[in-house]
Amino acid sequence: MALLDIKDLHATVEDDTKAILKGISLTIKPGEVHAVMGPNGAGKSTLSNVIAGRPGYTVTGGSITYDGQDLLAMEADERARAGVFLAFQYPVEIPGVATATFLKTALNARRKANGEPEIEALDFMKMMKANAKRLGVPDDMLKRPVNVGFSGGEKKRAEVLQMAMLEPRLCVLDETDSGLDIDALKVVADGVNALRTPERGMLVITHYQRLLNYIVPDVVHVLAGGRIVKSGDRTLAEELEAKGYGAFTEATAA
Amino acid sequence: MTQTRMTDPTRAETTTEMSPLAPDPGALAADEPGWLADLRRAGLSVYRARGLPTVKVEAWKYTNLAGLKKIPFVLDDGSLPAAAGRGALALALADAHEITLVNGRPVAVPDSLPAGVRVVSLAHLLETEPAAVEPHLGRLADLSDAPMGSLNAALMADGVVIQVDAGVALDRPLHLVTVTAAPDQARHMHPRHLVILGEGADATLVESRVTAAGAAETLSNAVTEIRLEARARLRHLRFVNPGPDAVDLDLTEAVLAEQAHYEAFGLTLGGRLVRNESRVRLRGSGADARLHGAYGLRAGQHADTTLIVDHAVPDTTSDQLYKGVVDEGGKGVFQGKVIVRRDAQRSDGNQLHKALLLSRNAEVYTKPELEIYADDVKCSHGATAGEMDMDQLFYLMARGLAEADARALLVEAFLDDVVESVPEGPVRDAFLSAVRAWQAGRHAVTWEGSA
């Protein structure tokens, strides 16, 4: 069974009739990593936000089935507890909530939904420290409020740390490479690669091919003008890099 | 609000329309030293001239005391037994020197205090050693523009005097648990406190302001005068959590000598009408004042924070930071003023107030004022008032928190952010627990109410 099955998805920004997504279809099987590449304004962020259930978008047609469930019928928090994780392009600062406390609260919300007891404090600390160490997240950052005063690289590392802690089934990475220098990119990509398992699927949304040198996808989709104009294997990303988006967007316009 | 109100017709007749609560000049205590009698008379004359402040008075523009006229208050006479209780709503601080006051009168003082630390009843000191009080009482605070503070001078009966000798650092916090009680009928009271820290002294003063169970309306109109000598440091941490029928007015005036530090934090969660007014005079170079605080208000609650910092000499610093959460029907007021005198070069004064409004009929009024007469200064002020941040809410929900839990966490976080400026330790922990309890209560009321 497909982990994520998007069929003919149409969406608009709320209070606007202008279509952003105009019939997207893609299927991610467990263990697969799909990349969605596209120029600015193609609808990349709308796609990730609609999958995560962010308010402010209206789905006007099509469906999203996740693990056999109608994802669009679920609230954002239900989706998250069911194992959908969105790594934000712009992680949000939450003053007053320590990162460690936040991680524990989120983890326990997930466990509660699965009928599991709350995690023991000691087990949580061990798990958090191990993951933080692997991602090069210093202890001090875990004590600081969520994303407050974090650099661009630290914010993205913190997103991957959350992902590692929450162990989602489906990871949606929305331009996780934006604002990262090459060293930070490698750390983040290593963190993501460590989470690749035969059960887990990933949707990696990016503007640049660069990230895909480190997170090697099974399938690459080119998104332009709200449609997937071409799909292929990893070599499609290289072709895009060589020819530019123009070659693909002109093809759709024609 | 369901108590039977007993009225005393003779008392009602002496209450004028303009200045209720005021005694006749002849009714002031007669057997007191001349300076004290002068102080009372001066206070009474200011109060009589100005009357109960109305919203037409700039300093009281957003806080209306007119409702007090309708309540048949009688002056507390000190007749209530100590058994009025500690008040379950006070901060739970195991490791503190605790002083309990009922209606402004000390009823329990610590058995043993470190050498160089004195905590005594003001009434007792006025009786036995008035010369010890005379240089300070009424000399630190200029109340000529403060009608309620002046009324306090006229009617003050008791309070605490805290003295820490030069160079003495207090081992544990002093915890004033001030309980208001009015089991029979509405009472007004005028507690007066003095806090004197000698050169280099160091102390933490915690206050819990609470109300005994089953009280009718209470009006507490307190004045606290604080003197910090050179290099003294006072952390003044206050928990204002009186009952739903309590009116709690407080005016604190602190005078700082060179390199003295006044670090105040106020957490207001209770009361019907609360006004916390702090006036800090930075009189010595290097003096520093931090006035931080948080408040959470629900329906029927009004809390006013009025701060004045006076940079009187060069090289002084101040920081005002308040955050408030106002729920349905609550009303918050923040008036913050920074004065920089002509000679006070290189003053550094900051002010920030942030309010989170949880419903459409929550109100907040902010009045920042900068009065700067020097040219080489760094001053900033900012104020925000808004609804919950939808990006933050979505971020939490995208991590699996149910909407109600996410909202609760954001409300707590909004306040915790400033509560965390209290030094780490039991008092900060107690404040954080109080915020959590308040949020849990708000949550239950709001969500049950809307169901």
Automatic annotation (TrEMBL), chain A:
Lineage: Bacteria, Pseudomonadati, Pseudomonadota, Alphaproteobacteria, Rhodospirillales
CDD domains linked to this entry: ABC_FeS_Assembly
Organism: Roseospira goensis
GO molecular function annotations of the record: ATP binding; ATP hydrolysis activity
Protein name per its UniProtKB record: Fe-S cluster assembly ATP-binding protein
Keywords: ATP-binding, Nucleotide-binding
ATP-binding in keyword set: yes
Short name of any one Pfam family annotated for the protein: ABC_tran
SUPFAM superfamilies (UniProt xref): P-loop containing nucleoside triphosphate hydrolases (SSF52540)
Keyword Hydrolase: no
Record family assignment: Belongs to the ABC transporter superfamily. Ycf16 family.
Residue intervals of the ABC transporter domain: 4-250
